Amino acid sequence: MTQRFIKAVQEYNILSQEAIAAFLGIVTPQIIQKGAIFLRQGQTPKSYAYIDRGLFSYFHTFENGDIVIKKFFSENSFIASTSALLQEKPSLFTIKALEETHVLVYQNSDFRVLLQKFPEIAFFYINYLEKNWVVAKEPLEINLKYESATIRYVQFQQEYKNIENRLKKHQIASYLGITPTQLSRIRKSLKN
Question: What is the pTM of this model?
């Protein structure tokens, strides 16, 4: 598990052996059971996690009970309520395990120490944030406001092709901002 973690980190920036040892020194393996909450909406987050095996949904629940899934996170992903961590504020999102999920967890406070001590870990973090929370986010914001539900579904299939079969229809519909019935109609029209 730790080898896959370091490989995932080094996709963003190469680390020295000293930085690798320090980073591995702050991670703790955990198993999150299916249906368990890693972070609850309204809770102030304290940690990040690397997903070695499993699947999370990242969602917001409105006062009326409606749920909007912002993103799914699967193997070789890093997950946190990043904005809330950076601001040290309660999260607007819940992170829930959709399967039994094996993670390496590291505390934000420990990670901040490593960012100061090891520039290559800081560059990993900058590169990760730029790719996943800046560059990848812009097209999604435009698509949600402009594209049809069918086009959004086709784009969903491209982005999540490896996990679509692991998701329930209502989860995909929530991500797309449509009803499960609408999703069934879209799937049927695409088959024809």
Answer: 0.89
